Amino acid sequence: MAQSSSPISAVAERYAASLYDLAADAKQVAKVESDLGRFEALLEGSEDLSRMIKSPVFSAEEQAKAIEAIAAKAKIDGLVGNFLRVVAQNRRLFALPGMIKAFRAIAAEQRGEVSAEVASAHELNAAQQTELKAALKSVAGKDVSITVTVDPSLLGGLVVKLGSRQIDTSLKTKLNSLKLALKEVG
Fold first, then answer.
1. Which of 25, 147, 138 minimizes the C-alpha distance to 79?
2. Count of other CB atoms within 10 angstroms of residue 162
3. Residue 147 is inside which H or E element, if any?
4. How far apart, in whole angstroms, are the C-alpha atoms of residue 136 and residue 146?
C-alpha cells in the first residue's frame, strides 16, 4: 500500500492491515467487512456517535464503554467487536473512518478488485450500480467494488473517484463551467 503523508491515515492503514491479517487468518474477511459496514452506517447515522469518536474531551474509559454498548446493541462481536474495543482503549477512535476505508481497500486489493467512490445526486438502484460497475471494469481492467454516497448538491450526474482518477459528470460542475464561460464572454 502506498505510504501516505497524513499521520491519521498512517495510523488507519496500520490498524486496518492488522485487522485484515487477523480476519484472513480466521477466514472471516467477508464477515469483518460486513460488520465494519454496519458500524460505519451507525456512525454516519448518528451525529452524537460521530462527535464522540472525534472529541478528545471524552476519556478512553468513556469511549470504551460507549463503543462496548453500541457494539453489543448492534450485535457486532468477534473480531470487529474486539477491534473496536482495542481502538477505543488506545484512543484511536478518531481514525476509525479511515481504518474502515483502508480495510475495504486492502480486502478489495486481495480479491483483485479496485475500489471506486461514487457520489450521486440520487440513490442508485441495483441495475444502475451493476451498469456502473461494468463500465468501470472496462476502464480499470479489473473488477470494481463501489461505495455510493448521495450528494443532492450535485443536482444530477455522478462524481467517480477510481484510484487517482476522478470523473466528474455532475450537473453542478457543468453549470459552474458554463457560468465561468459566460463571465469570460461578457
1. 25
2. 17
3. strand 143-150
4. 9
pLDDT at 186: 63
Average pLDDT on 25-51 reads 94
CA 146 to chain centre: 10
How many CB atoms lie under 10 A from the CB of residue 164?
6
38 in Cβ contact with 74 (< 8 Å): yes
pLDDT at 4 over 60: no
pLDDT per residue as tens digits for the range 135-176: 999 988 888 888 899 999 999 999 999 888 999 999 999 999
Contact 134/127 with Cβ under 8 angstroms? no
Q: What is the pLDDT of residues 69-94, one digit of tens each?
A: 999 999 999 999 999 999 999 999 99
Q: Domains in the chain, start-ordered, CATH in brackets?
A: 7-107 (1.10.520.20), 113-185 (no CATH)
Within 10 A of 41 (CB to CB), how many other CB atoms are there? 11
Retrieve residue 52's grid coordinates: 464522540
Amino acid in position 27? K
Torsion, Cα 51 163 141 158, to 10 degrees, reads 70
How far apart CA 33 and CA 26 sit, in angstroms, is 13
Residue located via cell numbers 453542478: 172
Per DSSP, the three-state class of 116 is strand
